[in-house]
Amino acid sequence: MRGNHVRRRLLAGEASVGTWLALPSPEAAEFIGRLGFDWVVVDTEHYAIDIRTMAQMFMAVAATPTAPMVRIPWNDPMWFKRVLDAGAWGIVVPMVKSREEAERAVEATRYHPLGNRSVGGGRHALSFDTTASEYYRHANDEILLVLQIEHIDAVERVDEILSVPGVDACFIGPNDLAASMGLGLGVPLECDIPRVVEAINHVRETAVRFGVVPGIHCSNADGVNQRLAEGFRLCGMASELRYLLAGLRADIERLNWRAAEPHRIDTAGQGDTVRY
């Protein structure tokens, strides 16, 4: 059985870096899985990735040295069951704001006696290159559970959230956190707003105190390096979509050429226009 190198690295006190997958593309997932990241997270919370495509992305990533993980849309047992049986090595749970919600996530992730995850079919064992019986024996020790702390309410209750047994890591979403603090949308991930910095530091310090791995989303390699130096150990570097758009945008701006403006024609002199 393949072991989850990400969980082992984090439990050993080492850092682990990965990226987000926003595009519903097994081909893109396979290419990115061979770049050298520890893990990739298939983002089913914010992007149009259905369960079948997600499973195919897990298949593509599991054939590489990278761990296939997923961010589920919501903290609902149905989502845990489906993504884990499809082959996820780890789950990122969005917008956790209370101890009860943390306990619910642990219960849905772990088999009895540590939780109440349903025992059933799927390709979970194939993802770890093992048999179903072997998977059942070791899954509780291999699946990585990450809770997102991305609201000021969660920051204020972070002690009760991160003290829940079975939580492996937390992951700060600086954008949502800043928005929940009334600071607007689009605040940079590595912003220096004192209130945001104080909240982020508080979550990191609390995580360390409870033996939970502190993690955070970063905008680029410089952001990852900054957060690693601050003591974070689970760092996500933007997404493949962000790098795709940034690379193409940069080269388009260097061209000695500009795209044509949308063409308009007058239809039958009636004043209506059709855009092509």
Automatic annotation (TrEMBL):
<dbReference type="Pfam" id="PF03328">
    <property type="entry name" value="HpcH_HpaI"/>
</dbReference>
<dbReference type="InterPro" id="IPR015813">
    <property type="entry name" value="Pyrv/PenolPyrv_kinase-like_dom"/>
</dbReference>
<dbReference type="GO" id="GO:0008672">
    <property type="term" value="F:2-dehydro-3-deoxyglucarate aldolase activity"/>
</dbReference>
<protein>
    <submittedName>
        <fullName>2-dehydro-3-deoxyglucarate aldolase</fullName>
        <ecNumber>4.1.2.20</ecNumber>
    </submittedName>
</protein>
<feature type="domain" description="HpcH/HpaI aldolase/citrate lyase">
    <location>
        <begin position="18"/>
        <end position="241"/>
    </location>
</feature>
<dbReference type="GO" id="GO:0046872">
    <property type="term" value="F:metal ion binding"/>
</dbReference>
<keyword id="KW-0479">Metal-binding</keyword>
<dbReference type="InterPro" id="IPR040442">
    <property type="entry name" value="Pyrv_kinase-like_dom_sf"/>
</dbReference>
<dbReference type="InterPro" id="IPR050251">
    <property type="entry name" value="HpcH-HpaI_aldolase"/>
</dbReference>
<keyword id="KW-0456">Lyase</keyword>
<comment type="similarity">
    <text>Belongs to the HpcH/HpaI aldolase family.</text>
</comment>
<dbReference type="GO" id="GO:0005737">
    <property type="term" value="C:cytoplasm"/>
</dbReference>
<dbReference type="InterPro" id="IPR005000">
    <property type="entry name" value="Aldolase/citrate-lyase_domain"/>
</dbReference>
